[in-house]
Amino acid sequence: MIWIYVSANFDEVKLTQKILEQIPECGHKNTTSLAGLQHDMNKFLRKRFLLVLDDMWEESEGRWDKLLSPIRATEVKGNVILLTTRSLSVARTTTRTEADHINLDGLDEQDFFAFFKRCIFGDENFQGQRMLLKIAQDIASKLNRNPLAAKSLGSLLRRNVTAKYWMRIRDSDEWRFTERKDDIIPAQKLSYNHLPYHLQLLFSYCAIFPKGYRFDKEELIRTWIALGFVVHERKKLEDHGSDCFDDLVDWSFFHKHEQYFVVHDLMHDIAQEVMVKKCLIIDCLDLREVSPPLAILESGLSWHTTNKALNGMRTSKRN
């Protein structure tokens, strides 16, 4: 089984490298030659395989064919490629018929509420205060049975277990901005809006990094400190920055994966949304309109530019 996280950064060379890294017999050299990598693919991909390409956004049929050409040429029969995407156009590009699509709904309603209670109370069988459970059920009905939304809102609710606070969350105007029946952005935005301001600042900075970026905790903390985002009168800045990072993990804004941390794509969308008037983001396909320079100067934040064409490299220029 080969599992690859694709996200928005579709790069045939890097994806082929990642595939080869998961073939035990292949001791391939780190090369940027797609032809050389595909030669190794033909040589070492000799067993039947399941290839999972997770969270794909690339709609170009030509790039998709280029990635799969050595896989399609293999003599081994019975191989399966499983692709996940949030884009129907990607699904249509990468499959032959509509019958090949499997539309994933949310969790079963009963299972979802049990999971939501675990996120809030640490116990899926919690049967405590009826009023709190009724409010939690009302909020759960707005989350489209999505586990990520349950984790985010669960982290928010467990910090203040009072009916008054929970009703404020339930009755928030943010829910009115739901665009689709499976949209969970309002739930994520609510979680962001209820972060303390200093944590909002630290998290929103992550908008300048590409989706799927692997964050090193210590490196990110040093960057926050260098930018003046971490301030404390008594604690060492490194210790306070570490506490802030741990808080963001606890709020489900970062997730640990092996030795590094990642921001879920939907959380990344929130970071870019809140920074849209303070940050210019260039991904070669989409140039977002930003406020005049005066507004950026007044914000006290930095200009930042990201460009996926530079292989994920980032450049920044302080005002």
TrEMBL record:
<dbReference type="GO" id="GO:0098542">
    <property type="term" value="P:defense response to other organism"/>
</dbReference>
<keyword id="KW-0611">Plant defense</keyword>
<dbReference type="InterPro" id="IPR002182">
    <property type="entry name" value="NB-ARC"/>
</dbReference>
<dbReference type="InterPro" id="IPR036388">
    <property type="entry name" value="WH-like_DNA-bd_sf"/>
</dbReference>
<protein>
    <recommendedName>
        <fullName>NB-ARC domain-containing protein</fullName>
    </recommendedName>
</protein>
<feature type="domain" description="NB-ARC">
    <location>
        <begin position="1"/>
        <end position="121"/>
    </location>
</feature>
<dbReference type="GO" id="GO:0043531">
    <property type="term" value="F:ADP binding"/>
</dbReference>
<dbReference type="InterPro" id="IPR027417">
    <property type="entry name" value="P-loop_NTPase"/>
</dbReference>
<dbReference type="Pfam" id="PF23559">
    <property type="entry name" value="WHD_DRP"/>
</dbReference>
<dbReference type="InterPro" id="IPR058922">
    <property type="entry name" value="WHD_DRP"/>
</dbReference>
<dbReference type="InterPro" id="IPR044974">
    <property type="entry name" value="Disease_R_plants"/>
</dbReference>
<dbReference type="Pfam" id="PF00931">
    <property type="entry name" value="NB-ARC"/>
</dbReference>
<feature type="domain" description="Disease resistance protein winged helix">
    <location>
        <begin position="208"/>
        <end position="271"/>
    </location>
</feature>
